[in-house]
Protein 1
Amino acid sequence: MATTFKSGFVALIGRPNVGKSTLLNQVLGQKVAIMSDKAQTTRNKIRGVYTSDEAQIVFIDTPGIHKPKHKLGQYMTRIAQKTLNEVDLVIFMVDVEQGYGKGDQYIIDMLERAKTPVFLIMNKIDKIHPEELLPLIDMYRNKYTFDEIVPISALEGNNVNTLLQQVSSYLEEGPKFYPDDQVTDHPERFIVSELIREKILHLTREEVPHSIAIEIDEMSYKKDRDVVYIQAAVIVERASQKGIIIGKSGGMLKKVGSLARQDIEALLGSKVFLELWVKVQKNWRDKESQLRDYGFNEEDY
Ligand SMILES: Nc1nc2c(ncn2[C@@H]2O[C@H](COP(=O)(O)OP(=O)(O)OP(=O)(O)O)[C@@H](O)[C@H]2O)c(=O)[nH]1
């Protein structure tokens, strides 16, 4: 009997650091979402595409589902809420080591408003004793009627295949949205901006990282010099943050640029000229369209 091909969009949500990027990387077999011990490293949606013989799952990495503290947070929350209604399935991930908190309740309140099926993924089971798992499952069952509850270790890969099978079983018959070998949709600009952000996160230990965004102003191949020229803006919300990122005599920005350039060169396999600048932008709402526009234009390259 011929089986039908299934496909659909799945939103991956959860509090910062529960392991969403780690799961995506595990599923897709390569580093697409940048990981960091610091919360909130992935601000934008990444679509990781998993394709098997039976199904295609398009993952939407949806960070920012938490109580907004500033404009960018509000923007993200709005996008997140919208996403929950548009996808075919929501995966709500929790860290079994972290207690149930206000952040989780906030997400569950958002889920109550969506009609989409919801899986609860209990991640990091490698960190607890198996006996501790059952009471935790009961606790979450009392909070919300999840369609499935799947304990996994995203880091070690335990139960990840089962999860993929279960996700596929919830999807409806559908087309292959992306070719088999595509793991991310328009990855270059996104990954370049994430690499720059990652360097800032690692080099500055200030409050700054939580309110920055990276905007790629230009990314083009310069034939005469045989380099990829990238101009990117580091956008901050306050002037004081600008000073921290630029650093003494521009030292911090130079360091960020140099480390990011090395990684980008490795990613693109060509020489890179990276120009970074910092701008203060108070009103994030004006940035909505640009934040959405991570499309990589072949012609610029
Ligand atoms: N022991 C263990 N650690 C894990 C597991 N999954 C993720 N981690 C660790 O948890 C930390 C956070 O993981 P991320 O994947 O960056 O978390 P995230 O949810 O994507 O975080 P944001 O990007 O801030 O939304 C990293 O140090 C991971 O190595 C797991 O299954 N077991």
Protein 2
Amino acid sequence: MFAEDLKNSLIVSCQPVPDGPTDTADFVVGFAKAAIDAGARALRIESVAYVAAVRAAVAVPIIGIVKRDLADSAVRITPFVADAEALMAAGADIVAFDATDRPRPSSVEALVQAVKARGKLTMADCASLADARRALAAGADFVGTTLSGYVGGPEPVDPDLDLIAAMRRLTPFVIAEGRIRTTEQAAAAARAGAHAVVVGSAITRTEHVTAWFHDAVTSAYRSRPDGENAVLAIDIGGTKTMAALVVEGDVVEDITVPTRRQDGPDTWLAGIAEATRSWAGRYARVGIAVTGFIEDGHWSALNAATLNIPHRYPLLGRAAALFGVPVLAINDAQAAAWGEFRFGAGAASPSRDGHGNLVFLTISTGIGGGIVINGRPLAGLAGHFGLIRGPSAGQSPLEDLTSGRWMAAEAARLGHEATAAEIFTSAGEGAPWANEIVAQSAFRAATLCRDIQMMLDPGLIVIGGGIGLAGGYIERMRRAFDGMDARVTPRLVPALLGSRAGVVGVANLAAETSQRQT
Ligand SMILES: CC(=O)N[C@H](C=O)[C@@H](O)[C@H](O)[C@H](O)COP(=O)(O)O
């Protein structure tokens, strides 16, 4: 055959999910025949045995590959010349192999020569334009985009159309391959200049295709207009407000708007209602997490400097009237504690939170927290750790001696104008003054954790916030426990949900309330 024979064609890759129910020669041959019946002009087949089985059943060109997982090389596709030989002996017309620039057992040159020696064609599976250049210089007949997105980093979702177009400027013999999942993408690959287009998973990996549809249907059912499971979750903080549509721990949609401090709660709520107007009807409940504390549905500030709330603002009543559905409200750190317990660090360490006691501590501009006891979150004042005045804190609230605000003030007192983030950078660069500030803050936070351990015996203390999660802070806290008996040593873990912990937590509480009531 000639490279021209594949011009303007669809090639179907028949590679079942390994060890899945269709990973048998019968299925591979069936997929191959069905593809040809429907117009495919060539096939891509993996393994010597399947190439032989398909060769016996069809006459069209076969691109053969062997996949191996090697201990000493990341190259998987046809790594050895012996593999190429075996594929040709089994009936492959084209041998494809990994042509990336990585340590490998057989060189691209050796593979090309071995295949050419038998009068067959070669396809270089590339990850980049540089790979394609080298492969063409080595004499490869086709270059493919097969490995783009598979040599490190997160796997992309879309096909690499840019690479197809770039390769086309090097050679007409470009085969588009990889993540072509829709007819539109296949057409776009052809238009981008591909000589032929390979489609695999979307046609022959039925488990993958089924999972794509399953995910689409499930997520549509979960957030469909009647929204029976969906919660509009709102997290009103001192500088910004996040609103999210949350379904069973998943944030389906979210927006963040600034909290205009001077406006007050009526205006904030009206602004959120306006910003989320297009979600109306898609949720059955509202959950609101706020800085400050909630009592009998009323919201009050504990620290007016963070957000000045009129004393006992009737949050539940106003929000219920505005959104037209039942509302639950809780302090933001308590909501985040619950979010981390159910879906974050607690869920990631089930053995540790097994007895249902977890404390969440957020160390940022101030210090906040939340407590989960026997698998239930505590409300009201519980967890306002920043405001306690333990022996370690003397007469000032602990947050005034530990938080990011304190760190910046302490730096200024020592003659350094620096934000908390800059103090961490300076500490990382070895500045003794910055190191000392971070060390003091971490020591006080660690002392707090030791006290918490003795009071509540949580399975985990989850540390969040910009300071708590800054480089090395948790490690410094842990160092303060050196030499302590393991039984009484607090078990610190980093928070996992970031800024979404509050909306995820309050949404779950609101949804659970509805379940208890129905
Ligand atoms: C990266 C890698 O190992 N690709 C393999 C190469 O043969 C196969 O697993 C792919 O299924 C094939 O490239 C077709 O791509 P898609 O299934 O996305 O249409």
Protein 3
Amino acid sequence: MSAVLQEARPAVDVRGASLAFGRRTLWSGLDLTVEPGEFLAVLGPNGSGKTSFLKVLLGLQQLSGGQVTLAGHKPGGVNSKVGYIPQQRAMDEGLTLRGTDLVGLGLDGHRWGTGLRTRAERRRKVGAAIESVGATRYANEPVGKLSGGEQQRLRVAQALVGDPEVLLCDEPLLSLDLAHQRAVSDLIDARRRSANTAVLFVTHEINPILSYVDRVLYLVNGQFRIGKPDEVMSSETLSELYGTKIQVLKVGGQIHIAGAHSSLCEDEPHHHEEAMSE
Ligand SMILES: Nc1ncnc2c1ncn2[C@@H]1O[C@H](COP(=O)(O)OP(=O)(O)OP(=O)(O)O)[C@@H](O)[C@H]1O
């Protein structure tokens, strides 16, 4: 397929998608096209189906209805070029796996395999991914001994090493301090700019990534809205979505939400135990 044709197809194409567990419908009638290089934030309260949406894109969860393709391929297939960054959580201190081994896992397995021919090429790719996240200095240390921010940079490198066309991020900034939140989100943004990778970024808190976000998918209680941050993160739209009065204030380039919202959507997020990429 020519480069021109590859550029033309959407990174993610969701048509009439629905997902229900038993009698509970998380979302239905979801149509969404994400273009290469686009940054989409996925927001919503606990249990609204953000992680389930990522699982669908990873091929780990079947839709109840509708269809999804990633760069023209079905989710989870050997050809789907998807990188995944999980929630930050501390790795076992005794873990002796080195950073280079962790990043190399991003090239293994059939789900995201790339069919590399030589060991030298593999080493080159792993080295380049580690360098791109500024982790070269500690890449040969056991990962269990590294700080949370250093570990998260290596997870970003692991997600990038297979040259993904779509990068799925599940609350990748959780537990990081502000400086590291900034560093990790800058890395993700740099990738989509340099390689035209589409980014789908699940988060409870839009402010750390607000300057990068092109569009928002906001899920609440079986309803959703898709649009530019200013359109979706407005008093009118969120009041409609939550079915109660919500006030959105924009101060100093940040979005603050007042009213019933705090009790509805700023609970501690759940930590998902599945190691979906490892
Ligand atoms: N396999 C499953 N079977 C039944 N129910 C499920 C399954 N997976 C998820 N759910 C339910 O679907 C709902 C949405 O879960 P999901 O993890 O997608 O939410 P979320 O928006 O990511 O939440 P959080 O912000 O808390 O991480 C939850 O109520 C969850 O219990």
